[in-house]
Design a protein that fits this description.
By secondary structure, the protein is an alpha/beta fold. It has 5 domains: about 150 residues, MutS, DNA mismatch repair protein, Chain A, domain 3, CATH 1.10.1420; about 100 residues, MutS, DNA mismatch repair protein, Chain A, domain 3; about 190 residues, 3-Layer(aba) Sandwich (Rossmann fold), CATH 3.40.50.300; about 50 residues, SH3 type barrels; about 80 residues, Ribosomal Protein S8, Chain: A, domain 1 (2-Layer Sandwich). Helix content is about 50%, strand content about 15%. A 6-stranded mixed beta sheet has the order 12-13-14-10-15-16, with helices on both faces. Strands 20-19-18-17-21 form a 5-stranded antiparallel beta sheet, with no helix packed on it. A 4-stranded antiparallel beta sheet has the order 3-4-6-5. Strand 22, helix 19 and strand 23 form a beta-alpha-beta unit. Keywords: ATP-binding, Coiled coil, DNA-binding, Endonuclease, Hydrolase, Nuclease, Nucleotide-binding, RNA-binding, rRNA-binding.
């Protein structure tokens, strides 16, 4: 794509505005026409990344500050150079931004919000924090910290003590020689403490002269009383410098050791900086991500020029089907034709650069390998070319370059010369391009081109609407309708004599008059249909909004209703449970009393009371479908559950379906289907229960599990592993969004019996597997 096309379509201004949203200078340098992609897979991937970023930004801000180019620092560290404090802080800021972005992505994983493409970059970021922690512990914006080493701390304490001694000595000297000083402030010269002594009193203050003022009236003297202390401080400063260099060298060594990770972080963060810059810029004009492909139609929904104020710009629907390669827009000047074709051209370039387009959701664009434009006054004074010659020179160059994968945008084709010859030339150029399946969007005010598209199946007319009532353009695009001249209507509005107008109409020809009348009627019908469509869309939108509101109320009502039912059931169940427990306690007491000799206790009444309570208990498990169970033969002496009473008993007599059962001290007769035979329990000697190693697999598969269920299974599994003395196990969590993998590894970090864990090797399943070594 040549510079003239970029300038003609104003894409350079788009790039300037996009750069304002990038953080790093390195990213800003990458914002140029080299972002333009022509392979369908590449374009779709880039647009998908920006779409993910838009999704994230709609939920929460994503801060990218701190991103800067650290590649030169890392490479210098690798060859043995010692990095400065500021360079180490730059690396720290990048590591900090990396950790914060990982945290942001994890928030979206926890919410199960799918990030189809961007999650790939987050997974490429190393999670190791040891280098970041070491830098934080060692340096800050003021320099190397005191506690970076015990040696440095000791040296600085000594310097502090010596400087305190100097200040004490200097204060004494200043009090003694106050009248001989030109100022009461201690200053520094050549890293030595000096006093400003009046030149005529310098002989009275013994010391070393380090400097003289410009006027010569002040001499800066280091008193002899502090020379020895200053010398000691100088030696300590040298020791401090050496220790600082040693500490910085050690930190630089750590940077060199982490070269691969740091360069990976730099690359990923700069990619994300560019992606989020595009998304944030797109949000500034409410841009969207279009569908795009080589065989797509062009369908821009409510498209507008992105450099015009969004509150004032007129938005247009532009629809060109797959089989159409030519759009001829006719109509008067200053009607919005140029803005419209620029909007189409910019939308295509922006989409193929991965920038949201200025249109609504549902827009589609055709993919092009090259774009050419000839727009505006490109007259070359230097080459002494006229406007017509300049345009024709550019068009000639375009014709030599285009193919069926090109988009050509031509503004006022054939203008600047004799109208008849200009129209003929315009038709010839269009035929040349369209016969070669080049996609062409052209504007013209020549009436001869109105009929051009009617004879071609791959070409469509369009025009810009003009309001005769207000004598002003509406800037609305009318697809399928050629532009009409409004000269007679405008003349009549402006008060021109009617006889003159009628004579002009007669001179223009009856056919031309009828064509204009038909075009006018078609425009009116189209405008009316568009207004009806807008009103229908408005009503549908209101209806949909009302439907969603009603559904919201309905769902809220259902939730509250269910919540109230559950609360009431829970409260009722608790009351009944308490009553059952109380009744059981009474029965137990009565049985004890009977054993001790109590007579004539009507216990069956208490059991009936308990049964009544049980029948009220809201629980589906009480009423069992006994018919579905395997029918077992009952014999005298069998232990059974009496389902209707919730009691255990023993069969003492059988008469058909009537069974007599002994329940404690009570005999009762019940139906056979009210009983369930109890399984006979074999008594075993007490033994310590152990988990057999043979029964515990060395692999746990969590794929397909919900996050919470997976964590519960993992915890239980690790307990079994510990009891079975397994030394190494394999957790399969799959790749997916990475949320389950992070959850598993976080759980393993906190488990006291886990020694180490690592990601699986390619032969073991790669990132979808974590290998755990137990203590």
């Amino acid at each position: 794509m040549n510079e003239r096309t970029l300038r003609a379509l104003e894409f350079n201004e788009i790039l300037i505005r996009l750069k304002e949203y990038a953080i790093s200078d390195k990213t800003k340098k990458q914002i140029n026409i080299d972002m333009f992609q022509t392979l369908e897979a590449d374009v779709k991937k880039t647009l998908s990344e920006v779409d993910d970023a838009l999704t994230m930004l709609r939920y929460r801000p994503v801060e990218m500050s701190g991103i800067q180019d650290i590649t030169s620092y890392v490479k210098r560290a690798k060859i043995g150079s010692v990095l400065s404090v500021n360079e180490l802080i730059a690396i720290k800021q990048m590591l900090n931004r990396k950790d914060m972005l990982i945290g942001v992505f994890n928030e979206f994983y926890d919410k199960e919000i799918e990030l189809e493409t961007l999650s790939h970059y987050e997974r490429a970021l190393p999670s190791e924090r040891s280098l970041y922690n070491k830098i934080v512990e060692t340096v800050d914006e003021t320099g190397v910290l005191d506690h970076a080493s015990s040696t440095l701390l000791s040296i600085r304490k000594k310097i502090s003590r010596e400087e305190s001694g100097i200040r004490t000595r200097l204060n004494d000297i200043m009090r003694k020689h106050s009248k001989k000083l030109s100022d009461s402030l201690v200053t520094m010269r050549n890293n030595r403490y000096v006093l400003p002594v009046k030149a005529d009193s310098q002989s009275e203050v013994k010391g070393i002269i380090h400097d003289v003022s410009t006027s010569g009236l002040t001499v800066y003297i280091e008193p002899m009383a502090i020379v020895e202390i200053s010398n000691r401080i100088q030696h300590l400063r040298e020791d401090e410098k050496n220790e600082v260099n040693k500490i910085l060298a050690e930190l630089t060594g750590l940077v060199a050791e982490n070269e691969y990770d740091l360069l990976q972080i730099d690359e990923v963060l700069h990619i994300l900086d560019l992606v989020f810059a595009k998304a944030k810029y797109g949000m500034s004009y409410k841009g969207t991500i279009p569908a795009i492909g080589t065989d797509e139609s062009i369908h821009l929904v409510n498209a507008f020029h992105p450099l015009i104020d969004i509150e004032q710009v007129v938005k247009n629907d532009i629809l060109v089907d797959r089989d159409t390669t030519g759009i001829i827009i006719t109509g008067p000047n200053t009607g919005g034709k140029t803005v419209t074709i620029k909007t189409i051209g910019l939308s295509v370039i922006m989409a193929q650069c991965g920038i949201p387009i200025p249109a609504l959701d549902g827009s589609r664009l055709r993919l092009f390998e090259s774009i050419y434009a000839d727009i505006g006054d490109e007259q070359s004074i230097e080459q002494s070319l006229s406007t017509f010659s300049s345009h024709l020179t550019n068009i000639a160059d375009i014709l030599n370059r285009v193919d069926e994968k090109s988009l050509v945008i031509l503004d006022e084709l054939g203008a600047g010369t004799d109208p008849e010859e200009g129209a003929a030339l315009a038709i010839s150029i269009l035929e040349y391009l369209l016969d070669r399946d080049v996609t062409v969007i052209a504007t013209t005010h020549y009436p001869e081109l109105k009929s051009f598209s009617y004879g071609r199946t791959n070409t469509i007319n369009a025009s810009m609407e003009f309001d005769v009532g207000t004598l002003s353009p509406t800037y609305r695009l009318l697809m399928g309708i050629p532009g009409k001249s409004n000269a007679f209507e405008i003349s009549e509005k402006l008060g021109l004599d009617k006889n003159v107008i009628e004579r002009a109409r007669a001179l223009s020809g009856r056919d031309n008059y009828e064509i204009n009348e038909m075009i006018g009627a078609l425009e009116r019908h189209t405008t009316h249909a568009r207004d009806n469509e807008l009103e229908t869309k408005r009503l549908l939108k209101n209806a949909e909004s009302l439907k969603q509101e009603l559904e919201g109320y309905k769902n809220k009502f259902e939730r509250e209703k269910q919540s109230m039912i559950e609360a009431a059931e829970e409260k009722a169940n608790e009351i009944i449970k308490k009553s059952e427990r109380k009744a059981q306690d009474i029965i137990d007491d009565l049985e004890l009393m009977k054993t001790l000799g109590a007579d004539s206790i009507e216990q069956h009444k208490l059991i009936e009371a308990k049964k009544s309570l049980s029948d009220s208990y809201y629980h589906k498990a009480i009423k069992k479908d006994v018919k579905n169970e395997v029918e077992e033969k009952l014999e005298v002496g069998d232990e059974v559950d009496v389902l209707t009473y919730g009691q255990k008993g023993v069969v003492i007599d059988i008469e058909g379906d009537d069974i007599s059962v002994q329940m404690g001290i009570i005999k009762m007769k019940v139906k056979k289907d009210e009983l369930k035979k109890r399984k006979q329990e074999k008594k075993k000697a007490p033994a310590v229960k152990r988990v057999s190693r043979m029964n515990v697999s060395n692999t746990l598969d969590l794929r397909g599990e919900r996050y919470e269920d997976a964590m519960i299974k993992l915890d239980r599994y690790l307990d079994q592993v510990v009891l079975s003395n397994l030394s190494e196990v394999e957790i399969i969590h799959g790749k997916g969004t990475g949320a389950l993998q992070k959850g598993v590894q976080q759980h393993l970090k906190q488990h006291s019996k886990v020694a180490t864990f690592r990601g699986g090797l390619p032969s073991e399943g790669g990132f979808g597997v974590t290998i755990v070594t137990m203590k």
